[in-house]
Amino acid sequence: MEAKALPLSHFRARAGSPLLLSADASSAARKGSGAPGRSRASRYDAGAPPSRAGMNGVPKLNPKFSTRRAGTSKVPIINFEVSHHRAVAAVRLLRADKGKAFVDLLNEKANDSGENEMGYVERTLGFSTRHLDDRDIRLVTVIVAGTVRWKRYIDYLIMSLCSEEKVFSNMEPLLLQILRIGFFEILKLNVPAYAVVDENVRLAKVALRPGAGNMVNAILRKLLLLKETDSLPLPKIEGDDRAQARALSIIYSHPVWMVRRWIRFLGKEEALKLMNWNNSDPYFSLRVNTTNGYTRDDLVNRLEDLQVHYEKSIMDEFVRIREGMQAVLQAGLLKEGMCAVQDESAGFVVSVVDPQPGETIMDCCAAPGGKTLFMASRLAGQGKVSALDINKGRLRILMEAAKCHNLDDIITDIHGDLRLYAKESTAKYDKVLLDAPCSGLGVLSKRADLRWNRQFEDLEELVFLQDELLDSASSLVKPGGILIYSTCSIDHEENENRVTAFVQRHPEFTPQGVQGFVPAEFITDDGFYSSSPTKHSLDGAFAARLVRSMH
């Protein structure tokens, strides 16, 4: 599902492979690093970390560093001693904490983003790392996403193992990220203890100073001892509802307000299931592009050739994978227009829209465009989809994807704010989809950082915005036409309550049940579409059909 988070213009930056060395240096890097992919723990050479300064203040580079000059241009110092994926993960976590990076899949070794990523690494650590292979990229993704998901749980334990609380509160940011990585590897990845300690201590010593490495060593060894004796200092679930929610928020690593809200509306058992789902490694779904003449069997055959394990979905156009996204990207399956990454929950929203050949459809908050493309493909070359969005850059990407899918003759992009466009436009459409900006509470397993970027107060702002956008979208529906309201939230305030409030303001619209458009297990008692992570193993989503009267 495409998470529509405030602000509307947000764009998820992606990062790929790092800056490459010249041919001779990269060859040396490969020889020094050993064969890739043979061990979960990072490879390293035994030896002392490099001296940070020598005579006259000039740094002494030990053999594990490489530098090269071309005229007056300085090529970055490459450190072959530290764990490369951990160094990149630490910097990415540092940037994510500052709100300057998104926790997401690394891209398919895109040169621009890769060079940018390694530029951050070099500026932060004072050195760069070698080229990351596919295994390294996968490890960066797993470590960053997992560490962010479990941040509250990990930080509680780090603070508990510090000699004083102020040691934790005053800890320098990079040191904290290195510790978080070590804790996540020990507690959730079960990486061999010697590798976790040695590699993270080495990174702290080289990137910071010997004393930082000593602290990492002491704290990680304390953690290992407590884990081995099953005596981790976790909070007890006791006291009143508020106290229990605080304890659960630490154990399951979620904001307290989310825990309290879910226990209140879902019950404790269902809330715990939901948090477990959010903390699990997500699967990804691929939708085959039938417009280009491909079938699901074609996609399955390509996945088998790539040795990517898959499961067939309950939707005919979809398959699901848990690992192997890098292989899919690098094989060019998306670029050649064979498939798109899209959750089935989004596919069911399109089923609720039910695009028919010859119809005119408006997608009001269209970017990044997954539903736009799917709706256009359902028109069988007859009809039009107008894709409106406030973000010009994302619209450009949407249209590039439309061209790749041979749908650019069906899709027209409109750059603008829906609220202003609705006031100025006289156009009316058979169907209008408003996939509204929302809290994204149904997609927390895929958006690991989103839970920490949401406050309870955000719901009030979002509800106001959703009402505004619904009012605007409704004016674009022709008499007898249909307005579809959808979110990737599981919160009633953003879903059913918005529909109820809208109908009260607009009696010319009547809710229409989604029976016949989606399987019965996804239909609520009120006739709306709703997918639940815990019940359906899909992203959480909601959709309602609202028919406009003829008068």
Automatic annotation (TrEMBL):
Q: Which UniProt keywords apply?
A: Cytoplasm, Methyltransferase, RNA-binding, rRNA processing, S-adenosyl-L-methionine, Transferase
- CC terms in the record's Gene Ontology section: cytoplasm
GO BP terms, alphabetized = regulation of DNA-templated transcription
Q: For this protein, what reaction is catalysed?
A: cytidine(967) in 16S rRNA + S-adenosyl-L-methionine = 5-methylcytidine(967) in 16S rRNA + S-adenosyl-L-homocysteine + H(+)
Describe the location of the SAM-dependent MTase RsmB/NOP-type domain by residue ranges: 274-549
Function according to Swiss-Prot or TrEMBL: Specifically methylates the cytosine at position 967 (m5C967) of 16S rRNA.
User: Where is this protein localized, as stated in its record?
Assistant: Cytoplasm
Give the top-level enzyme category.
Answer: transferase
Where in this protein does the record put region Disordered?
Answer: 23-66
Provide the active-site residues from the annotation.
488 (nucleophile)
The UniProt entry's sequence similarity note says: Belongs to the class I-like SAM-binding methyltransferase superfamily. RsmB/NOP family.
Looking up Gene3D superfamilies in the UniProt record yields:
NusB-like (1.10.940.10), Sun protein, domain 3 (3.30.70.1170), Vaccinia Virus protein VP39 (3.40.50.150)
Please tell me where S-adenosyl-L-methionine binds in this chain.
Answer: 365-371, 389, 417, 435
What is this enzyme's EC?
2.1.1.176
Domain of life where this protein originates? Eukaryota
Q: What would be one Pfam family of this protein? A: RsmF-B_ferredox
PROSITE patterns associated with the record: SAM_MT_RSMB_NOP (PS51686)
Protein name as annotated? 16S rRNA (cytosine(967)-C(5))-methyltransferase
